[in-house]
Amino acid sequence: MAQLLLELVKTARPRQWLKNTAIFAPLVFSGFLFEPGYLSRVIFAFILFCLLSSGLYIFNDIVDAPSDRLHPFKKKRPIASNRLPLPEALFVGLTAITLALSLAWTTTFFFFLLALLYTLIQISYTLWIKHLSILDVLTIATGFVLRVYAGSVVVNLHMNVWFLLTVISAALFLAVGKRQSERTLLNGIGERNLSEHRATLGHYSQRLLDIYTGMFANTTWLTYALFAFQQQFIKTEGPLPTLFATLPLAFTAQKWLMATVPVVIYGVMRYLQLVYEQNQGESPERVLLSDRPLLTAVILWSLMVLAIIYAF
Known about the structure:
Blueprint: H1 2-12, H2 25-30, H3 38-68, H4 86-105, H5 109-127, H6 135-153, H7 161-188, H8 206-230, H9 253-256, H10 261-277, H11 284-290, H12 292-311
Helix pairs in contact: 3-4, 3-5, 4-5, 5-6, 6-7, 7-8, 8-10, 10-12, 11-12
């Protein structure tokens, strides 16, 4: 039983829950993080998306099991290697998806619609879209946008359009970096027929992926810079003293958020370095948790954002 639970946890991919932290963005940047009732609702939405995404990952591994068994790395996955029986995996996956959507219905109607749309898009991606070049990476980006909107509607907050563009750009940057690393890893072990392992890899030449990577790396930090320059904050009472009230307008909060732009630029450059020099972009969440400089940059950026919005 313990081994079965371990294989289920591996298939649920809790490391991927990092992607669901995008749900917190609207709350954090709105200035309402410490307002009563807001944080608890967003945490509940985050838990629901973690449950939903895990169920969808199990569904994905069930569908991909035949092709995963031919892949040099994915053949070690619990379902593909037959360590996790298919009936148990199917039961847990469907239960997780059904429970998540049922609980989403108890929040707000629009949050439920976004959760349902996310589910349908991910199922379509597993069954069809991931075999279509360009649409595959666009669908990945759509998933991040839906997460951000879900975090907005669950507490009825507005999300800045420039931040949404930043999320789209960053998601496309990570998705293209993933394809870049997949191609490099397969070539590195002598695999020449890339389409056998992922249909879209045959349509992504090295030069095309280089262009895509550079394009989305630039749009990621540029859209974030525009967001940082223009973001307006709603002042609320929080646990920390507000110091900006005593400062001239030239030093208001939205001005100070520009200080986080160099950290974002460093993060983008470091990730590019990992993709091109160490071929580590195949699993973005693993890169974030294992690379100390990149993790430090993310933590520093988070602390700076919280301090600028709430401490001053």
